[in-house]
Amino acid sequence: MGRIPCCEKENVKRGQWTPEEDNKLASYIAQHGTRNWRLIPKNAGLQRCGKSCRLRWTNYLRPDLKHGQFSDAEEHIIVKFHSVLGNRWSLIAAQLPGRTDNDVKNYWNTKLKKKLSGMGIDPVTHKPFSHLMAEITTTLNPPQVSHLAEAALGCFKDEMLHLLTKKRVDLNQINFSSPNHNHNPNNFNQTVDNEAGKMKLDYGNGIMKLWDMGNGFSYGSSSSSFGNDERNEGSASPAVAAWRGHGGIRTSVAETAAVEEEERRKLKGEVMEQEEIGSEGGRGDGMMMRRQHDQHQQHAFNVDNDLWDLQADDLINHMV
DNA sequence: AACGGGTGCAACCGCGAATCC
DNA sequence: GGGATTCGCGGTTGCACCCGT
Prior knowledge:
Blueprint: H1 19-32, H2 39-44, H3 50-61, H4 72-85, H5 89-93, H6 101-118, H7 129-139, H8 142-164, E1 189-193, E2 198-202, E3 208-212, E4 218-219, E5 222-223, H9 238-247, H10 253-279, H11 287-296
Antiparallel strand pairs: 1-2, 2-3, 4-5
Helix pairs in contact: 4-10, 8-9
The protein binds a DNA duplex through residues 3-4, 6, 14-17, 36-38, 50-52, 54-56, 58-60, 87-90, 101-103, 105-107, 109-111.
């Protein structure tokens, strides 16, 4: 027993909407509103299902919609809210007047996700990849680490390879050492021995973990094959370059995590607050929320903001 | 000029929640 | 109260367009 279809598929047109159909739908809704989507196509003389009409209206025809490029400010808001809300596109879109959840989703999937990955940030967790790998090493027992980390790297690898063919990371420009140092076991400094191709995680309590970036990472005696096959004339493989590159992004991971967590808490509180306002009929234009976003704007990406100083053009590398 | 891969966007699908009767 | 219906959401797909070869 399946779900009852929203319409009889045989008599329903699908695919691209024509200007005539748009006109019919828009003028009908202008007169009668959007009360019953199932009846709208019938009454408007359209051979479409109600669902298709609703989608066309909400995503394209609505007069208050904004078409065209997303601004930097909008981009900031999307990334920031995504770090708190995840893929709740409708909630994120609610913060952007004139944008639909579909717009936001498409923009995220086609642009922002890649941009974040290109900066060494996992678009799912909004943490630097190095942070995630470090978490693996600190939370798992040594025998588990290499297998899980290898699997995780496999997930990142394709995207990283793709992106890193566009931007070569100049190792000489990267400062891997951290001025901060404490004895929190979750806090460590990352150093890189470029000669040996190793990244060293120094936890400051006598514990060291070594990542072999040239021949696969290693934990103790185990190592994976990650990064073996992409090397070229002495320079790092794209995947290894990624490691080196994002290794330079943040060196005091636990500190970063604390700041991020605080940021998320604040923002989540704001969102809940707004949802309550909305449920009381006071959602209005969301101005209050937007003012609060502006106040947080300078921290919009919840990792080091200097990452975001990178221009999109910086991701293009003509050498590779 | 033809082709193929990549990209961006519009539209569709299926599910769960909300509402109706 | 419960089944039927409608709505809204997030994931996915299809296709037109662009660009490099």
